[in-house]
């Protein structure tokens, strides 16, 4: 089977690395002149906590990688892709994994702002930050906050300008956004919400209310949009993204789409977890295994020094809510409960509750009586009636430990039994911990517990 993957991002790289495709003749085209890398860890590079070399994504040696070569057309009749150098590559299966691109607002002078999307972008920002005194970050979403914090760690004064009424409005409610802004202020980052940048000038920006802000570095992080031009020009059905079915198949039975460019059941996912879930489903399907993609449960984590933010599901959903707020400490916790199950959750500050809440949300298990105890597992752990539910060693074997890669406790234990006795070895065998990295402490905790007989908690109904 000849498989051509267009796009060397995290979805495409994960697909070609899947062991189920060994034996296939695979060619991977990537627009960037680099080999695939973990884009999730760019915020660590910007903050100086991660080396660029640590982002490399290992690929099987039998995959032909054409880095820096763009595909300009898909000849669906001949089943060939056409590269910018005129070369034609035949395929039995073509996979679009073209990802997304930064949104560029129609603002005068915006070409003077640096995007924060690729490793090259990150290198340019770091170079400019070495002499910058004040930076403006346009956009207070996930990447904008990570960029702002990374610059602040490097000693640059930062102002975040965000059009919406509060930060991270997709993942946080107004109260959570306000507390996050207060936490950022304590880290030296000024936040302006409910206002936009009207112009980018050589010496700073001008806001929509006429306020000038002096700056010698402007970073644009205004969201992304799926890259669909190749699919559209090839005659495939495109709405917001490339429309696919439960097999990730477009309306051409020989062309598939995965990752940030794909639209499944009206939804385009912009997080790495769903991208990798789609890659796994498609690899299984191409290998002849029964597999269908049914959508993904969203778990978002902010990855920045001194900030702990997690958001699960739909935090704006209707339902019963349980909240705790301590603005001075930067702590805010909220559960949204519907039909005795977790529909959404917000966790700002210490992330003690993130593990068990993610398990409950992922499995859609019924919540225990008195769900308010879930907000404070460090207290519940002292109660023999509740403590085991928060002990990773006592989680059921089906519990998901690495949400980015959908790796269960059982898969980690199986790899451990086969000799993978470190977090790095577990990552090589299962991919666990190779996404955002926030599950690494949980993996290390599990490795420390294996060999000790424990009775798993009962599966919730």
Task: Write a structural description.
With 461 residues, this protein is of the alpha/beta class. The chain has helices spanning 10-17, 42-47, 119-129, 142-153, 174-186, 229-233, 272-286, 354-363, 377-380, 409-417, 423-430, 440-449; strands at residues 2-6, 25-30, 64-67, 71-75, 80-83, 88-90, 93-96, 100-102, 114-115, 134-138, 157-162, 189-193, 197-201, 204-207, 212-214, 217-220, 224-226, 242-244, 255-257, 262-264, 299-304, 307-313, 320-326, 331-338, 341-348, 400-402, 407-408. Helix 1 (10-17) runs parallel beside helix 7. The chain is globular, with a radius of gyration of 23 Å.
How much strand content do the residues show? Answer: 25-35%
**Average residue pLDDT:** 89
Could you tell me how far the N terminus lies from the C terminus, measured between alpha carbons in angstroms?
43 Å
Count the DSSP helices: 12
DSSP summary, beta strand count: 27
Could you describe the largest sheet, including whether it forms a barrel? 5 strands, parallel
As a whole number of angstroms, the C-alpha radius of gyration is 23 Å
Residues in helices, as a percent range: 10-25%
Biggest sheet strand order reads: 3-2-1-7-19
* Unreliable residue runs: 381-390, 452-461
Shape: globular
Oligomer: single chain
Structural class: alpha/beta
